[in-house]
Amino acid sequence: MCGIIGYVGKEQASPILIDGLKKLEYRGYDSSGIAVLDNGVISTVKSVGKIAALEAKTAGKAPSGTIGIGHTRWATHGKPSEINSHPHSSHDGRFAIVHNGIIENYAEIKAELTGLGYTFKSETDSETIAHLIQHLYCGDMVKTLTMLIKRLKGAYAVAILGTDSPNTLYAIRKDNPLIVGIGNNENFITSDITAALSRTHDFVRLNDGEIAMVSADEAKFFNSDGRPIKKTPAHYDIDARAAEKDGYDHFMLKEIYEQPHAIDMAVRTRIKNKLVHLDNVKFDKAYLEGLTKIDIVGCGSAYHAGIVGKTFIEKLCRIPVDCILASEYIYSDPIVDERTLTVVISQSGETADTVAALRLAKKLGSRTLAIVNVVNSTIAVDADDVLYTYAGPEIAVATTKGYTTQVGVLYLIGLEMARILGTVTEKRYAEIAGRLEQLHDKVAETLNNTTVNLAKKYADKYADKHCIFFIGRGADYAASLEAALKLKEISYIHAESYAAGELKHGTISLIEKSTLTIALTTQSALYHKMESNIKAVKAREGDVLAVASRTNSKINYCVDGMITIPECDDDLSPVLTAVVLQLFAYYVAKKRGCDIDKPRNLAKSVTVE
Ligand code: G6P
Description:
single chain; 609 residues; alpha/beta; eight-stranded antiparallel sheet; 19 helices; globular; binds 6-O-phosphono-alpha-D-glucopyranose
């Protein structure tokens, strides 16, 4: 949510900043801007809309200078407009800032500064920071920032450019990510390593309260009192092409096709000789037996992954599992103590609601286990234990490989806990472990031409619908929640998911001639129940598209279309149905001409509550 980039080096800053902003565009894309310092003057260019608009505006007349900051915005305070977009300047024009987060006490500071004669141009909370820096400035920027930190309440990552320090950028953070990239005679400040990955692989993550002072040849760090601290860069061995489309039309499609590899990394590499290895995460039997429940907490697709995990873990471990939306969890006075294991799921590792939930669970005495994709992100670092999903950078706003790898890791956790608890037979354990070891192959098989062509065919057929229902039972119901979200976020078709048995309790009133219902039909034990539910839809002249397992493909006799998934264990089918329905959502959105990688109003990394 909002992306920050800063550059200081020997080259022209503008093209590097714009290139960085393109990589950060998934964080927000309603407006953007850059500020570059040259000969004691800060020049700012801003534009409404995507980074392409900023690029067009600066073509041939980009501000010159070798130090600058840039920002891509996801509006919170004030509508998308040039005035509200960043960078914001101080009253005297000596400072420019870019901000990600929300300053909760901005109104109070704004009133104070207005009283002192400062004039505000925008409706944003962020502009307050620029004026406050001018107001607090004492000739020493680090000292000024220690004072600034004491005044700001809320969440922030801020990069600062000032005319008094023409060769140095400054940065501070609290509860929002900010990273310093260490290059060769050039350094970066960025919200995400992908923005600087083409120029360096060495990064230092700022922690809450820390200050960075970054020039072309060095980066110095200070704590919130202004005392120097030593921070060592970590080397990220990630191919810069991971942040490129690599020939695919969209990042989403590329990431759908990366799933066999991602699941191989997340799941198969953790199974050795048919035994699950959860890296450094150790559970002992007494601890697990003493648990009253497991809470799984996340937002969006991460929450949906949790629901699939709940179904699996409860079935195998016989421990009650609650799956809770992080934004609800934090204000619900949750019943949590040391006998609760809290599993926190987040692709980005930075989602504000999930960070807050993690901190609350810890405070209440729960052990916390994070399932995270972004290495060294806030959630990964703050949790007691972490299991990375190793899906690689995910750029499309709608998650695909992020989600399926989360589900894969939850399977591993459930299976391992069941082994320790003795709630799974050796035979069943070996069976599931063997199936998990092959899951990446099954995903590759799901991406075969026949399935892709069927997904396209049905997408073309149903792309003009205004509303699509998804139904399923058990693990299929859990999987259908994500399928509906995927479709609605990228195609803007209203989509809802229902437990198939629940349809008759209200929603069936919405089924009329040719309303489309997508029925997930992979659970053998529930086949006949699904068959009845499907028939109830057909009796109202609705259309039904089944996504069925091979065993259940006999359902074909009463549906309007069917896509089958490769033969797999019923408990693991949600990963395969997810892939089919990602393809369906993708092709529906494509047919409707939607901006697939950057759906309206959304941002990938939601760092505000
Ligand atoms: C945003 C994204 C979703 C994502 C959710 C949680 O809303 O658009 O795709 O599932 O945040 O993100 P996280 O990084 O915590 O998994």
